[in-house]
């Protein structure tokens, strides 16, 4: 750990980072996004997939394509796609709570989901008290990760420099931006995947985050 740039903040992604990715939360959100497109645009089947892929490529997220081309209100979309059951797939995580309690850093959540969704997930995991702040898509001007402006909004709001942050996420793209800005980075990924080459330090579970911070 560099003496000139002491670590002060751990910035965590939410979904598939603070809980294991095989639990089905993101899959449920994805199913709601498909349903939203069916209901609002009248598309079905493969046309939904094609549209989502095109908007992701052209605009970064499905939402941004919907905002631009269909005048969808982002808050309406976010409330709709996050209206999922959580209690049967997520459970309180006292182990993570204890790990975060022992670490001498300020913990922050930074998610492309909504603030309401983030609060629900943190409450369900019973770790809300460990986080000093939640930055969600609706709190960073609807600019999503991995765009650098989104990260800069978070840093400015916290009044800190990137060099004092460690960013933990399950997407290498997001980590690439964080590293370019000067943050330390950690990928959370239970099993290696060959489809996304990266060279970020990797842990299989958020429970191992303290291992990377040992003196
Ligand atoms: Mg994630």
Termini separation (Å)? 8 Å
Total individual domains: 2
Biggest sheet record: 6 strands, parallel
**Oligomerization state:** single chain
The overall pLDDT, averaged over residues, is 94
CATH class of the largest domain: Alpha Beta
Q: Secondary-structure element sequence? A: EHHHHHEHEHEHEE
Number of strands: 6
Content-based structural category? alpha/beta
Count helical runs.
Answer: 8
General form: globular
Strand order of the largest sheet: 3-2-1-4-5-6
Helical proportion, percent range: 40-55%
Low-confidence runs of at least 5 consecutive residues: none
Q: Give every kind of bound small molecule, once each.
A: magnesium ion
Radius of gyration in whole Å, from Cα? 17 Å
Instruction: Report the CATH topology name of the largest domain.
Output: Rossmann fold
Q: Mind telling me which CATH architecture of the largest domain this is? A: 3-Layer(aba) Sandwich
The CATH homologous superfamily of the largest domain is termed: HAD superfamily/HAD-like
Strand content: 5-15%
Describe this structure as you would to a colleague.
With 215 residues, the protein is of the alpha/beta class. The chain has 2 domains: 9-19 and 90-213, HAD superfamily/HAD-like (Rossmann fold); 25-81, DNA polymerase, domain 1, CATH 1.10.150. 41% of the residues lie in helices and 11% in strands. It contains 8 helices and 6 strands. It has helices spanning 25-41, 46-59, 62-70, 74-81, 94-102, 115-125, 148-158, 172-181, and strands at residues 9-12, 106-110, 133-135, 165-169, 184-188, 202-203. Strands 3-2-1-4-5-6 form a 6-stranded parallel beta sheet, sandwiched between helices. The longest helix has 17 residues, at 25-41. It is globular and about 55 Å long. The model has no long low-confidence stretch (mean pLDDT 94). Magnesium ion is lined by residues 13, 15-17, 170-171. Magnesium ion binds at residues 13, 15-17, 170-171.
């Amino acid at each position: 750990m560099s003496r000139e740039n002491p670590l002060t903040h751990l910035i965590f992604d939410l979904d598939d980072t603070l809980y294991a990715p095989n639990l089905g939360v993101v899959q449920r959100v994805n199913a709601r996004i498909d349903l939203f497109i069916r209901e609002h645009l009248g598309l079905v089947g493969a046309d939904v997939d094609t549209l989502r892929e095109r908007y992701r490529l052209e605009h970064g997220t499905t939402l941004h394509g919907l905002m631009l081309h269909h005048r969808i209100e982002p808050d309406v979309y976010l409330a709709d796609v996050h209206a999922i059951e959580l209690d049967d797939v997520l459970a309180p995580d006292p182990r993570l709570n204890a790990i975060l309690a022992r670490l001498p850093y300020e913990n922050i959540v930074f998610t492309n989901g909504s603030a309401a969704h983030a609060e629900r997930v943190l409450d369900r995991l019973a770790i809300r008290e460990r986080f000093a702040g939640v930055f969600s898509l609706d709190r960073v001007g609807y600019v999503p990760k991995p765009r650098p402006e989104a990260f800069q909004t978070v840093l400015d709001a916290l009044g800190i420099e990137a060099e004092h942050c460690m960013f933990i996420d399950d997407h290498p793209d997001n980590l690439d931006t964080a590293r370019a800005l000067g943050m330390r980075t950690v990928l959370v990924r239970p099993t290696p995947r060959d489809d996304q080459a990266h060279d970020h330090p990797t842990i299989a579970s958020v429970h191992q985050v303290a291992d990377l911070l040992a003196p």
